[in-house]
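Tokens for chain A. Residues wanted.
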């Protein structure tokens, strides 16, 4: 395990539109609200956060690769890449860092294609359907894992 006191918060495609995109599914909180919540929760555990959001898979993969050097763990909402990206999965595995996967909506109550995740089986914890509170729980769980 890394000796870093930093977490990487990764948010995938379309999460930059939180608060305005399908608020009946994703809520009214914004990405800034998510990032503030995670930073505050992490701070309580003596951790800092580096946040990245992108609609481009390669940008997310590069950020995950960089985490190998200075992060202790990753909280990730891969967005639609959850269901499509083996490359993102491979990047997460390559870090050898603990991963907690989070989704705002309950993906299991949605379309069948959303039921499969390329991340869940490599994640220490998976949080779905709790809205923005899921990020707080995910961060607390990662802090607990890191000890």
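Reply:
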């Amino acid at each position: 395990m890394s000796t870093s006191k930093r977490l990487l918060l990764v948010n995938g495609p379309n999460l930059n539109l939180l608060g305005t995109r399908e608020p009946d599914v994703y809520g009214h909180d914004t990405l800034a609200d998510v990032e503030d919540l995670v930073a505050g929760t992490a701070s309580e555990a003596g951790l800092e956060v580096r946040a990245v959001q992108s609609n481009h898979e390669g940008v997310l993969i590069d950020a995950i690769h960089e985490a190998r050097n200075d992060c202790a763990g990753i909280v990730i909402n891969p967005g639609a890449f959850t269901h499509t990206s083996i490359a993102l999965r491979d990047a997460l595995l390559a870090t050898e860092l603990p991963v907690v996967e989070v989704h705002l909506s309950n993906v299991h109550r949605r379309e069948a294609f959303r039921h499969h995740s390329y991340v869940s089986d490599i994640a220490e914890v998976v949080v779905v359907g709790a809205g923005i509170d899921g990020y707080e729980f995910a961060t607390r769980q990662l802090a607990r894992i890191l000890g």
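The beta strands are 6-11, 48-53, 73-77, 99-103, 125-128. Residues 16 and 37 are 15 Å apart (CA to CA).
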